Amino acid sequence: MDALTAFGLVSVGFTMLCYVLENRGRGWVLAFAGGCLMSSVYGFLQGAWPFGLVELAWTGVALARWHRLGAVSMRTL
């Protein structure tokens, strides 16, 4: 296994772990966004630019959800 494949495996595995744990707190949503960004980088480096673009879009969705969750928690204080 080369370094790029290992990076892809770690990126996608980390993303999946964070997705499973998202309901435990806002920090996991931010970590999920980071995992999506890592997976996007992997996609572009590997030459699978459609995968890279989709993961980049998921990064934006996750960051928006993270931001929204912060706004909701601030209103409940």
Structural commentary:
By secondary structure, the protein is mostly helical. 87% of the residues lie in helices and 0% in strands. Helix 2 packs antiparallel against helix 3. The longest helix has 27 residues. The radius of gyration is 14 Å and the shape is elongated.
Relative helix content:
over 70%
Discrete helix count: 3
* Oligomeric category: single chain
The radius of gyration is: 14 Å
Spell out the blueprint of helices and strands:
Layout: H1 3-21, H2 26-46, H3 49-75
Question: What keywords describe this structure?
Answer:
single chain, 77 residues, mainly alpha, 3 helices
What's this model, at a glance?
By secondary structure, this protein is mainly α. It has helices at 3-21, 26-46, 49-75. The chain contains 3 helices and no strands.
